[in-house]
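Posting this for the archive.
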Amino acid sequence: MSKLTDIHQQQGAVMGERNGVTLPMSYGDARAEHIAVRKNILLSDYSHFGIASISGEGAWSLLNRLVSGDVSSIRDEQAMYSLILDEKGNIITDLYIACDDERFLLISEWMTGEALCDMLRAMLEGNEEEFEDIEDIESLTPEWGTLHIEGPYAWELLAELYGMDVIGLPFQEHMRVDDEILLRSGKHGEYSYKLMGSQDSLANIWEQLLEAGEKYDLRTGGLNYQRLARLENPCWEPQIFNDFTRCPIELQMQWVVRYDKESFTGLEAVAARVEEGVPLRVVGMIIPGKPEHTPKRGDQVTLDGTSIGEVITYGYSEDLEAGLGRLMIKSSLAWADIDAYKIETTTGSIPVKTSAVPFARNYSFLVNPSEHSYVDSSRPRDLLQQMELQKAKDEKEAKEKAEKEALAVADSAPKA
């Protein structure tokens, strides 16, 4: 048991297991934790992420043969999101790849660090001459862990602790902060940072973040908040999609696949699916308000009484005041903004409209680190407040101008 786990238990977290790691599922109220992600800052333990390292001059070429993205496109302190596929072109896991000085880091939500190493070693076995100069392949977890700092003002809290360079850190890049690595990346649409380092160091940092985060109304959270966050900002989750498909084309994740690469595991299979076409695709769906009948996983989707697919997932978003979900339907019909379909539940039919994803109105889009602040009262909190202040300023100036013009007219009028 780590020092960080002890802290969670002392603070009353409801513990569970993800990817073989014991960590918080909730700190009491998943809905409040979700609101913190959208409005303030949420601090979570993401130590279920497996982290592996590969180093040596041939590291990039071996890694490039394994993943669907082009590793040669990233440089030191840059990162990328990619997939690992099997020979049939199906998703094994998604992951981040970070170029860290003389090594690459593989960071996966769904695989342990050792499992990632096993895949690299299997790729290397029998091909040592092709991929020479591989110095080391090692798992950094479970000795390492990950803290997740997410929300519209996550950058401001981290800049207070680690300096102004945090504010200028681009999406999918990372920087060294003391002995830890801070990676800006996320799946929920808000400002999001992963702080990776030793478990003992992260336990101390957790306490520092709690203290510094009070004035930002920071909340601690467990992984259960992801259900609402990922309902609004869908991402690949094996427990949701694997029963339906693991094909990146059917999942509308072809944007993660580089077909122009010379070779990687699963390339031929995926390219063949693109050429042949796929029978089904995933598309978002939205039902305004709370429906009379609640859709469930596996409910049939129909067009003019004929089945065209089924429901993958459904939930209600209080923020959007709508039911949201994903459908698996015939590829030729999987387009956004179609309102001709129905979901057949056990209690009745529901009209449904297809939708592009994400659904969420991410608050971070209204927050500019160079102009806004949660704690500095001399600066507006967000774009909306900035517009309100500017409107009030303009109205005041217009009023003062009108009053001056009225006085000037009065002064120039002939005297009796």
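The chain has two domains: 3-229, 234-355. The chain has a mean pLDDT of 95.
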